[in-house]
Structure formats: C-alpha cells, structure tokens
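Researcher: Re-running this chain for the archive, since the previous output was lost when a drive failed. Same request as before.
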Amino acid sequence: MNGRGNWALLGSRARTLTAAIGRLYSWWLEELLGLIPERWQQRLRRRGNLLLIDADEQSLNFRFGSLDSAELITRVVLNEEGGLSGLVSEQFDTWVRKAAQIILLVPEQRVLRKVIALPAATEPRLENVLRFEMDRYTPFTSEQVYFGYRIVARERERIQVELLVVQRDYIDPLLAGLAQANLRPGIVTLAEALGGWAGATLNLLPVSRRAGQGEWGRSRRVRTAVALLLVVVVIGWPLYQRHQTLTRLQGELPQLKARAEQSRGVATELQRLESSRAFLQEQQGQAPRLLLLLDELTGLLPDHTWLARFEDNGSSFRLDGESAEVSALISLLEQSPLLENVRFASPVTSNPRTEKDRFSLVADSSMAEQAP
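Model: Regenerated structure tokens:
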C-alpha cells in the first residue's frame, strides 16, 4: 500500500473514531438527562436559541427561535446553479452570536432513504460498513454523498438500518454560500428528524465538516455540567445521608459502650446477689435442722462427755470428743429420732491428761424426712 493509501486509511479510521465518540457522548448525555424529571429535561434540551435554515428547491428560509416556535427572519432565493450569492455576513451577525446552533434542514425529495438488513455483528462498526458498501446500496459512492443512519429494528442475528443519503453536489454549494456570510451549520438533517433533538443522531454532515458555535459549545457544557450535578445529587445524597448517620452513630458509640459496660456490671452484680441469696436460703433451710440436732445432743449427752468436733456431711454426722463412759454413747445417741445407725468411726483411745477416752462416732441422719 502506498503512502496516499495509508493516509486515507488513517483518515477513515480517525473519522470513524470521532463519529463513535460523538455518538457515545450523545448517548451518555441522553442517559444522564433521563435521570431527571421530564419537565427539567425539556428545559435543558431546548436551552438556547436556534438558527434554522429551511432549504427547498428555489430558496432558503432563515428562522430564529426554538424548536417549538421560530420566527422567519428572511428568505434568500437560490441562483441558477443551486447556490447562494450576495449574502452579507453583517445581515446575520446578530443571529449568529445569539444562536446556540445553526441547523440546515434539507428537503425530503433531496434525501435518498433505504432500509437495509445487516448482520447484528456489524453494529459496532456500522458507519464503516455503510461507507464501504455505499455503491452497493445506492447509485453513489461514499465520496459522492453525505449520509446518516439509524437502527429501526433489532432481531436475534440481524438489524434493520435506515440509511439516509444526500448528494454532496447539492449540499456543498449551499454550505459554501452560507460560509460567505459566516453561517456554518453544525447539523444537516431532515425537518422531521429534528424534534426533541433526535436530529443530533441523524446528522448527515460528516464530523470533519461540522462547525461548533461558541454559544453552542458553552450550552452543551452547561447541560453536561447540570446533568452531572443532578447525577451527583441523585447518587450522592443517599451516600451523604448514610455518612451522616454513620458519623452520628460513631459519636454515640462511646456513650452506648459505657452504658453497655454499666449494664454488664449490673448483670454481674445481680448474678452475684442471686448466688448469695441462694446460699443464704440454703443455709437458712439447714439452720433449723442443725439447731434441732444440737439441742437433741445437749439433752442426751451426759455431763462427763463433751464434743471437740461436730461435722455435718449432709446425710450423716461425725462427732469427735471425750467421755468417761464411751461404751454408753451409742445407746444414748440411738434414742434420738434424728440419728440412726450410730457407730464408731475409729478405735477408742485414752487421754492420760484428762483420764477420759477419745471417741469418733458416725451416725446417719434421719432428719431429711422430718425437716419442714
């Protein structure tokens, strides 16, 4: 491939990339605008004034205003070659400065429209496919026309594409004549495709020929900034509220933690008191039993007998002490209804100092059945 071919290929790819970026930007902006109320959408979409140029076979009608209402400024007759001559830039300077966008509306009879079926896989590179196959779908080559397209239907493996084509021999003289009066349209489209700014996606003018007005650029930036601000508000407000709630809870956390520690301390103290109360109740329940037994032993044991140790094992008792008559102790203790099965726990020994015998007795308790 020679150098000219390389440059042509690079230029084609650059135009395709620029067009794709433009479509992506338009889609992205429309999606952002779709997040806000319809009334605000209409205001943003119709922001600024438009200079509309309606073309027919004999003349151009210049109108200024909005999409809904535009006032006729002037009418210019085309010359025999279908172009413009004699336009004075000063005549339109005021309108150009005020205009957010200049739009050229071509007549329906000048546009070739055709619906073609293509594989769905061609959608990402549809503009290139249409450009390279232009002579197949129309009587013209891609160098002879300006074109636009829109997808009208999608099927599983195919898409239906409406191709709109206008000859350059018709558009270029008009653009050249308008340029003499400093009128450089940024959009060339059909009047029927203009409603709601849909014309922006059906711009027949190639990206390299599209003019951008300062006011229009600022208007687009303002619309984009407003849309971004609204998106930030819509998305960010719940996050801000959540952050505020989290900050408030974090501020309350030390106080809540202190309360939790206090509650835990109260619960521990309550558990301790419950354990103490249970112990006291148990001891209170045992007190009458022990008092009865001690009173019983006091009455049964003779004066020469005394106890050195008294042990309550729950179901039995152990009595250690000294007595002058150890052999009589078992019969004496068995007289008590509170004791049964009285027996020696160890052999009897003698204490020379007191001249008495040491004893250790064990008796089973019969007080369980008698205790109140």
